Amino acid sequence: MTTSPRILWTQCLEIFRNNVNEQQYQTWFTSIKFKSYDAEAKELVISTPTQFFYEYLEEHFRNIIHFTINRVFGGNISLVYEVEVVKNGPVKMKSDDMPSIDKTEPSKRQPNQSPTLTQAVGPAQDLDSQLNPKQTFSNFIEGTSNKLPRSIGQAIAERPNQQTFNPLFIYGPSGVGKTHLVNAIGTKLKELHPEKRVLYLSAHLFQVQYTDSIRHNTFNDFMHFYQSIDVLIIDDIQEMIGLEGTQYAFFHIFNHLRQNGRQIILTSDRPPVSMQGMEDRLLTRFKSGLLAELEKPEVQLRKDILRSKIEHDGLQIPEDVIDFISQNVSSSVRELEGVIHSLLAYSVVYNKDVDLDFAQSIIQHTPKTIVKEVSLDKIVEEVSNIYNISQEDIYGKSRKAEIVQARQLSIYLAQLHTQLSVSKIGLLIGNKNHATVLHSIKAIKNRLKTDKALKEQIDELTDILKGNR
Q1: Residue 345 neighbours by CB under 8 Å, 6+ apart
Q2: Peptide bond into 167 cis (omega under 30)
Q3: How far is 117 from 425, CA to CA, in rounded Å?
């Protein structure tokens, strides 16, 4: 008795399920439907709910699908996908014929909208850009640590059609002002070019919208919405790491916008070279525009930020208090603002004026905020003394085990006790790249879990660097 094609397809599904994880099977394979099988032509037709399903299956599961159907159906099988296209009805495409999603006509469902943002593709005035109007260039204080990204951001706001800085990839640690800067760019751009469709959102929200579009079969609408944007600003792009489907969708959106002269602005807490888990083709595109590092604020910038905050809030804080705070609170702009809020709250509760003694006593309650100024040279000097090697060895490129350990320890301490960015530390110590510096820091952290002598060594060095010995 001949087995029916539908039963053979059911057998294929069982094989797929045994060769991919359950989440992949439920997401991508349960939506495939058997349509027909022509035994004479050896042609199997299956249907997918959207164009995206077809493309994702082809890119990620093509080999296992072809291997399985040839094994079950008897070999030399031609696979054809039937994809639903609302305007003209189903469209059939052979498995080896995979057009770019950017060239695919989007669904014509009405209303045509992003799953969450719900702005129809139309005039820019109809789109809520999701920008924070309070974060502007006027209150983004310029300093040495942010001068380049700020200048580039202003240039983009003034001339959004130029492609020199596309994409603009801004990276730096949490709290240094990345979100403020990109909102300032978007706000200024909307002011100067009201006809532009500008959209700001977090990578997390993008991922949620993408997932909803797959769940509710509105992926074509999702893609069409994002491909209509003139300036796309995505915050914390590193949150897409490990999310294959989200990355796949964003890759095609990125390509479409870039090919059509639209501006893309991204922020991250790390540079592309350190984004393990992000697809290489996306990383290549991130690096194709301008990479701009936003560093921790230097002392003068911290003073300027404090003065601006104090003036804006109508506070009365003496100059010596401003000097003290700027010298001792150095990790981020956000932390500076937090200290001002704490001083204000304590002064109200205790009915005391904010003076230097009062500020010192309040900040001492939160010792984690205090980071004393320590030079890299001082760190290297003390480490070289402990290891009985020259400072030149640590700054150099020797691969001797003892020197490598001293260099890793110097990098670790520099990251804890200086204002230098990871990139700058690597540049100054052996001309190491960002990834190597992070590896050194991780190596020391791993050793600290079991090496008591190293912990005592670091405690001793920390006391010396803080002037306690």
Answers
A1: none
A2: yes
A3: 42
Q: Name which of 178, 193, 190, 170 is nearest 265 in CA terms.
A: 170
User: What is the pLDDT, as a whole number, of residue 314?
Assistant: 61
Burial label for 61, CB within 10 Å (0-12, 13-18, 19+), is middle
In the sheet that 91-94 helps form, which strands lie side by side, from edge to edge?
A: 33-38, 43-48, 78-83, 91-94
Residue 420 has pLDDT above 80, yes or no: no
DSSP 36: E
Kindly state the tokens that stand for 78.
């031609």
**Are 413 and 443 within 8 A, CB to CB?**
no
- Which class for 255: exposed (0-12), middle (13-18), buried (19 or more C-beta within 10 A)? middle
Q: Please tell me whether the overall predicted TM-score, pTM, comes out greater than 0.70 for this model.
A: no
Q: How far is CA 17 from the centre of its chain?
A: 32
Q: Are 238 and 250 in contact (CB under 8 A)?
A: no
Beta bridge mates, 78: 43
- Rounded (5°) CA angle 251-256-261: 125
Could you tell me the CA-to-CA distances from 408 to 417, 427, 442, 448, 450 in Å, in that order? 14, 14, 9, 13, 17
Site of tokens 């150099």: 396
What's the pLDDT tens digit per position in 263-309? 999 999 888 887 878 888 999 999 888 898 887 777 777 777 777 77
d(CA 23, CA 271): 30
Question: pLDDT of 171-214, one tens digit each?
Answer: 987 778 889 899 999 999 999 999 999 999 999 889 888 988 88
3-state secondary structure at position 358: helix
Among 84, 91, 81, 127, residue whose Cα is nearest residue 108: 84
- Chain CA centroid to CA 191, Å: 26
Q: Distance from CA of residue 359 to its chain's centroid?
A: 36
Angle between helices 333-350 and 299-313 (to 10 degrees): 50
Tokens of 126: 């109809």
pLDDT in tens, 208-220: 889 888 888 888 8
Element (H, E) at 45: strand 43-48
Q: Give percent helix, percent strand, percent coil of the chain, each to the nearest 5.
A: 55, 10, 35
Q: What is the pLDDT of residues 338-373, one digit of tens each?
A: 777 677 666 666 666 677 777 777 666 554 444 445
Q: Which residues contact 68 (CB under 8 A, 6 or more apart)?
A: 12, 15, 16, 19
Q: What angle do CA 305, 310, 313 make, to 5 degrees?
A: 125
Nearest to 326 by CA among 235, 187, 283, 318: 318
Share of the chain above pLDDT 90, in %: 15
**What per-residue confidence (pLDDT) applies to 369?**
40
Write down the pLDDT at residue 34: 92
